Amino acid sequence: MSRTIRILALLAALAIVVDLVGHRRALLADDVYRVASVRIPERGLRAYRPGEVIVQFKEAVRDRDASDMMREAGGRSARRSDFSPRYLVRLDDGFEIADVLDRLRTMPGVDFAEPNGIARAFQRAGYFTPHDPFYTSQWNFRMLDVERMWGIQKGDTSVAVAILDTGIAYEDFGPYRKAPDFGAAVFLQGHDFINGDDHANDDNFHGTHVASTIAEATDNNIGVAGLAFGCALMPVKVLDNEGVGSFFVVAEGIDYAVNFTLNGQHPVKVINLSLGGDSTSTTVRQAVDRAVAAGVTVVAAAGNESTGKVSFPAALPNVIGVGAVDGRKVKAPYSNFGPELSVVAPGGDIRRDDTGPDGVPDGRPDGVLQQTFDPDTALEQGRYDDFHYFFVVGTSQATPHVAALAALLYRQGITQPAAIKAAIENSAEDLGAPGRDDTFGHGLIRPVVALRGYGLNQ
Amino acid sequence: MGLILSLLLAGSVAAGPKEKPVTNKTKIASAKAARAREEKCVDRWLAERKLDPYGSPAETMYAGGTPLFDEATGRQIDRLEYIYRKHPEAKAACAPAPKTR
């Protein structure tokens, strides 16, 4: 009898163990679900004609010198425009468009250089619809009416956004690889303040995802789009592989971006800080003050603890502090709030599925979809080449939407950070209690309205 | 069957439905008070060592403004658990001792 009881007890214990294992598996499956990765097609329509670039020289440059420069940069032959010192350059075999453009852009006689984009018919007047296959999953872009926004402004490389973060997957260097969907995106010389070198490669995933929202290569028929895809990016690594940094390095990064010059110009007009801390810092505040005085707009994340205290430096009065909403324009559950909150932007909620290509649930989480490398592969194997598209949520993801809008406003001709901030705040869609409130600040950004100058007339 | 049902009903009446929520509320209040005491102890422990609310040096900045929210999963990490992982000595100083028989 006692033996039977022992056997029954053993079976019951086994059943419990099996049940626990089952639950553990379910939790693991849920963990994996966060990735929701989508493998991209390797080939498709191209946004640019292969092996060709356009270069325009300054009026004073002689044709012979222009010819020498094009050859030195990798050109095989060139066709001159009938109207200006502008050339269509065909590249020698083995030369990459991005490398040739980099070379040309550093030459003193070059006015500008760009890929020879493929013109397509049938764009609606006043709209621009990209052909990136997963663009339809970017509900956050639809929420901001970006096709009309791009009809007004797409940005160009005279305006750069510095991404102060964990770095960006922007180059092939050592174990690091350039994210494929950055395509012909232009990167300015950045700096790694964590390791003390000029290679601000991402070793976490965060910075690459944030940067992608701003300037992922767009209309290249690969993956997803970026909001200010014509603008340049500057990778500045101030957070380590765990996403942790310090006041000192953040201030160093701000000063680096502000003081950077290219051809006598200061191209960095916007600094994106998808970071913050609990304490305040004179070092960082003064660096922000210097940036704003130099005409640079600083945009920072409000923080992800759902508390009524906006993180520092987002709480500074001359910074645009950004909170997050989900796909319903409801405050995201994690988003901090408070009197210092400036505006909100889509940050998503990975537990919800309110959005899809047709505005209906699509079985995918409502995160912000962009390309980055798999953080687990990076952590476990030290590989930074396992690129996928990831749904990520947070005020970190909301912030680059606002930074991108700021960059486009600079391209529209606004030059002062206070005017940029006013344009963004005054044009926002009022959410929650009428007028400015602590949950949504001035409301959800409305790029189309801001770019039409509405905000400046308020 | 009818007998079983009536016994169950009788049992539920006898259990005193009004008392049960009060007991739960008391338990919750007690747990909240214990948690508040523990948080206060940890905050004091951190302040003595000039650490931020997450147990890092005061000048630390984080992706997304906090180490407690995983933007890849949307999950919040408990602050005390996070601190105890980093500083087991804080746990020794502040966490309630495990119950023993």
Query: Could you estimate the helical fraction of the residues of chain A in percent?
Result: 25-40%
Radius of gyration of chain A: 24 Å
Under CATH, the homologous superfamily of the largest domain in chain A reads Peptidase S8/S53 domain
Helix and strand content put the structural class of chain B at mainly alpha
Count of strand segments of chain B: 3
Strand-residue proportion of chain B: 5-15%
**What is the arithmetic mean of pLDDT of chain B?**
81
Domain unit count of chain A: 2
Q: So how many helices of chain B? A: 4
Overview of this structure, please?
The complex is a heterodimer of chains A (458) and B (101). Chain A is α/β, with parallel strands linked by helices and 458 residues long. Chain A contains twelve helices and 15 strands. Chain A has two domains: 48-117, Alpha-Beta Plaits; 135-457, Peptidase S8/S53 domain (Rossmann fold, 3-Layer(aba) Sandwich). Chain A is 30% helix and 18% strand. A two-stranded antiparallel sheet of chain B has the order 2-3. In chain B, α2 (19-48) crosses α4 (88-94) and α3 crosses α4. Chain B is globular, with a radius of gyration of 22 Å. The chains are: A alpha/beta (458), B mainly alpha (101). The interface between A and B is medium-sized, with 46 and 22 residues.
Short description:
Chain A has 458 residues and is α/β, with parallel strands linked by helices. Chain A is built from twelve helices and 15 strands.
Per-chain topology:
The complex is a heterodimer of chains A (458) and B (101).
Chain A: H1 2-33, E1 48-57, H2 63-73, E2 75-80, E3 86-91, H3 97-105, E4 110-117, H4 139-143, H5 146-152, E5 160-165, E6 191-192, H6 206-215, E7 232-237, E8 244-246, H7 247-259, E9 268-273, E10 275-276, H8 282-293, E11 297-301, E12 320-325, E13 343-346, E14 368-373, H9 375-381, E15 387-392, H10 395-411, H11 417-426, H12 447-451
Parallel strand pairs in A: 5-7, 5-9, 6-7, 9-11, 11-12, 12-13
Antiparallel strand pairs in A: 1-3, 1-4, 2-3, 14-15
Helix pairs in contact in A: 6-10, 7-8, 10-11
Chain B: H1 2-14, H2 19-48, E1 60-63, E2 69-70, E3 75-76, H3 79-86, H4 88-94
Antiparallel strand pairs in B: 2-3
